[in-house]
Amino acid sequence: MSKRSATVYWTGFSIILALLIVAPLVLPEFWRRFVTEILIWGLLAMSSDILIGYTGMVSFGHSAFFGLGMYGAAAALLMIKPPNLWLAIVYGLIGSAAVALFVAYFSTRLRDIYFAITTLIFSQIFYVVIFTWTEVTGGENGLSFRRPPLAIPGLFSVPFTSETLHWFVLAVVTASYLILRRITQSPFGMVLQSIRENEGRTRAIGYAVERYKIAAVMLSGLFAGLAGVLYAIQNRFAAPDFVYFLVSGETVIFNVMGGIGTLVGPIVGAGFFLLLREAFSRFFTEYYLIPVGVIFIAMVIFMPQGLLGFMRRWLNQ
Amino acid sequence: MGIEQILAAIPWEKIIIQTVNGIVTGMILALIASGLTLIFGIMDVVNFAHGELFMLGAYVGVVVIATSGSFWLALIVATLVVALLGAALQITTLRPLLGRDPLTTILATFGISLVLQNYALWQFGPVARKIQEPFTGYFTLFYLEYPWYRLLIAALSAAIIGAFWLFLKYGKYGVWIRATTQDRVMAQAMGIPVPWVHTGAFAIGAGMAAASGVLFGPLVGVNHAMGLDWILKAFIVVVVGGMGSLGGSIAASIFISLLEAYASIWVSPAQAVIVSFVVLILTLLFRPTGLFVPTPK
Prior knowledge:
Chain A has 317 residues and is mainly alpha-helical. Helices cover 75% and strands 3% of the residues of chain A.
């Protein structure tokens, strides 16, 4: 990255971060919550971008990772007294990592469309298990719990307000973005991108493509699980609806709308989608997916690079 | 425990009933999956909206029955209307994507499925509609009064699939479809209007989905989300059967439906779905090219 370009990039990064930090102080309650939600869905979409944008594998099963993150957090918050935020995150990550390992092991044997379909079916497996195993998961009703306090043991412990929750989510999402950005620029990330460009050639050079793919799915699953934990903490429940494949579909929509292979694009896409939903809900009530779906199809046909596609190269340097 | 006791413990009656049930569902599934396979084979499009075409077919059937009262008219009208809709969808959304990454077609058809599903919810509401069976005869199967209509569904589905197979084998346009599936560029060079063959194939697949929607309508209620279950099953079937293979997906449809039917003797139908997931996982592990196709060289 040239020095000037780097300055511009980090200046832009700081300005947007600063805007997001002050957002809860100036926005009314509804929009405050809205921005927090965009960040959480953005993190989910960003995690899936590792697969779609960087490795060239379209996952239609991210709801499984997201949902297991939610249920993992729920398990920690319901079983351990007093509820602990960090344990919730750890449990959520363990849950999603286990699922991701399972899904990765089987689905990376297949490529392209077959990968997409198998990830979709795997997420449905977990949906059925969660939906029918009522004694443990609460079945259709899901589980609800109290929000843990924001605490660092021995230092402080304060209950979450909507401002502190926003800042906490923002901190997690920003850290995730920086980590993922670093990973995509690392030698590991370069191998993933070469798999996207030409899998056969990457294998011919001597990289164990399958292992890289499994690692990519697991990495992606971990961050999706983290998004699930955040969503569980924000909403104080875990429900099977969030394991259903429509959530996976929305994740793909966020990616395509925002621009794949950019990491920030998916967050922008999530924001764009939620704004569209908000706007169209006023006229179409719960049928907002009719106009939003039409816009999505039009974007797939006419704007395959998404909103931020034009700055893809610049964002990745 | 002796052999006799084990034999006596097997619920033969239930197994026979479930065999009939499994074949009936399997034929419906085969009708849906063969449309999906046709569309995939010819243009590399994984049609996510196939379940919605099935659902719309059932709704058109509901509307036609409400106005005309004839089930058979409804079957024909629904097939034609949804086939036309399929052709229109193919021309407007899939034709511009020809030649791009096949994954973009998944995205486009996923968008279509969202739109169609919500359109149905908006137009017909969340309450399930009922399609009246064309006749209500029963015969006695052990302790059950088994409706003849179910057997008729299986026979009709088989007839439609058979006719479709004959069309592919001997019909002029069927030969066009097979030629385009084998080699798009060569077919074009031979003067076959490839874009229109694509549109036609999509319309046929859509029509088959709609026909199965009307046929299946009387067994369950018709509602806007009914396509989702079937599209997932159909996806499992096409992966297990070997994607793009018509015979494979028909065999896999019946195989998986039978297994699910047997499983639901012991567990609830919602959990019986897990059996087909297990079949899928085993297929992926040991034979990722599909169970019912010859080993690729």
